[in-house]
Amino acid sequence: MPSIPSLLPMSRREAMLGLAAAGLCGQARAAETESIAFDGLYKSFGVLGFEFSDRVTALRGHEVRMLGYMAPPLKAESRFFVLTREPLAICPFCQSDADWPVDIVVVFMKNETAMVSAGRKVAVTGRLEIGSATDVETGFVSQIRIVDAGFTLA
Amino acid sequence: MQAQRLLIMTVAGSLAAAAPAAAQTIYPINRAEILEGSHFDFKVEFPDAPASADVKVTINGKSADEVFGKPTTFLQNEEGQKHSALWLRGASLPAGSYTVEATQGADRKATVKWEVFATAQPRRAKNVILFIGDGMSVANRTAARILSKGLVEGRYNGELAMDDMSDMALISTSGTDSVVTDSANAAHAYTTGHKSCVNALGVYCAKNALTLDHPKVETIAELVKRKTGMAVGVVTNSEIEDATPASMVAHTRRRSDFNDIVRMFYDVKPDVIMGGGSPNFLAKTTPGSKRTDGEDFIAKFKEAGYTLVTTKAEMNAAVAGGSKKLLGLYNTGNIDGAFDLRLAKKGTTSKFPDQPDVVEQTKAAIAMLKGNPEGFLLMVESARIDKYSHSLDWERSVFDTIMLDNAVKVAKDFAGDRNDTLIIVVPDHAHPISIIGTYDDDRPGQLLRDKLGVYAESAVPNYGPVDADGYPTDVDTSRRLAVVYGSYPDTCDTGRPAMNGERVPAVKGPDGKTNIANEKDCTGPLAARKTGNLPFDANSGVHSADDVILTAMGPGAEKFRGHKPNTYVFRVMAESLALGGK
Q1: What value of ipTM does the predicted structure carry?
Q2: CA B72 to CA B22: how far, in whole Å?
Q3: pLDDT grade for B251, boundaries at 50, 70 and 90
Q4: Of B265, B256, B314, whose CA–CA distance to B290 is shortest?
Q5: How many CB atoms lie within 10 A of CB B1?
Q6: Which of B292, B534, B205 is nearest to B390 (CA)?
Q7: Which of B117, B138, B168 corresponds to the end of one domain?
Q8: Can you give the pTM of this predicted structure?
Q9: Contact at 8 Å (CB) between B70 and B243?
Q10: CB of A112 within 8 Å of any CB in chain B?
Q11: In this complex, do A102 and B288 lie within 8 Å of one another by their Cβ atoms?
Q12: Is the domain of B213 the same as that of B148?
């Protein structure tokens, strides 16, 4: 997906994003794509860590679709963003004393992509990865990721 | 006329030539009050990277090496930067007045003065309990009294435990770099007696590139552990790595260094550590970890003899079982506040159904610490008074003020007639929060402003009856306090408590920078849209520089009177515990 100049008015930019992303991954993959949700991610969730649910563990390496909210991105165009259960008002990247919720999913896009307004609900489609990984570029540690991903507004 | 102007220009010109572009900076800074025998890093930064032969540092006219009795280190172009630095890590001094002079070349000189203070023997307090109401402003106390005790014909039906104390002072909170402080710098003043800058804990803010390299000063928990047999407790309902609890153990320029702060807790080893924020204790291979390394601090604390508890039931069992070292981590983030624990049941109460509140934690901490024959130092923070005021969620902020007051009551009951326990209750900074009247749904009109009764029409609220712990059982009633904040982003005021979860006043706008009103709050029957008065990148209310009220009782408390800087709180604790001396 080509990056979109950030000078475009938001409504048009969002519309274009929606169309572009839908064309890219929406229809073609719909048949074999399994949906997962924040509510079904974990088998147990406690102070000392959590365990992914059996279904999510079984979907490792498969194409999945997931709804969530785009956290405030570090910059307007990025290769990755953080998907959260609830809309985040703050930008933990930007604020020294702000912190991420524990149950986040990190989304790595196929290409550097223009982000939409933070707090927008998005549907992400991509390949599910599970296990501790540290992003080389940012040092960001994640436990669950959707990679080679695209998104549409939801 | 022309001659006069020329003269002025000449004088100005010669002044400019004489004054250096930048002066040397000396740490500790001018007017520092330093506890005799406490450890601090001495650093002088020289601009323009001079060689060691071009600089000279004296203390009371003698060489720094001679006065400290240890050799200093000189680094030209420190870290490749355009300054040179003279260092002595871990310096200490006997009591006295000190004048430090740093000269560079022929005409560049900086001077600071330090007071190194002794503490009188014998030690007057066996125990010190420091309560910090984070961001607790005067209106928090007033509202807590109205909600908890009731107001009839202008008189309260009871006193708050924190108000009913023998001594009081007005405390100023500004830091070295700014009028308005943050919780790191503010708590640092209480735990080290030094002023510092925003986001700093246990360090002065020098030119060092790495956050952990800045010049350190010793914290009261470190002093107590190094010099006495006292036990130490750190209790909060925020993440344990958050600024206020971290100020007991941490040395970093950046308060968000949570993973380092966990290691610093481990290094100092307070006997009782309780709060939220477990993910930074877990090795990064554990799902749910926020560490970036493989260190497993849960295992390390256990190996060091700590009992690990993750629920209120486990905490109480550990106390009953006689545990003396306890690591209590009750939430991955902040522990839920009293409003959600008791009334709304929102936040993370369903995910973590057995979290202790600050009162229960305080009871448990005192029960574990009180057996130590050498006494104890306990810091208790009610952290979310501040966090909820940032969210402009005053009901939650005031419920946590009542919770702090109940914890103070626990400490007062312990102190009783012992006369060996100094209890201090103090906010770290203020928020611009005020009570301006009451909203009454029965007043005519459709707008929030129509419902506001001021002066003669500010009728007493009709909140539900208070429970045994002093919390109203219903606050979503027809006549409510009108509490306003003086700083806000674009937001909508509902004029009602947020029963469905903590208020979110603003969200990021389309440009990713500007914050705009959270439309969820803009649709209610009374919702009033407010244009923000803060910079556009602010998403919540900010701290204010207003002084805060300290109350205290017990040995040493009588020193609190009039107006004092926040560093004075450290001094009174150090004097009561006689922490001075080599």
Answers
A1: 0.81
A2: 23
A3: very high
A4: B256
A5: 5
A6: B534
A7: B117
A8: 0.89
A9: no
A10: no
A11: yes
A12: yes
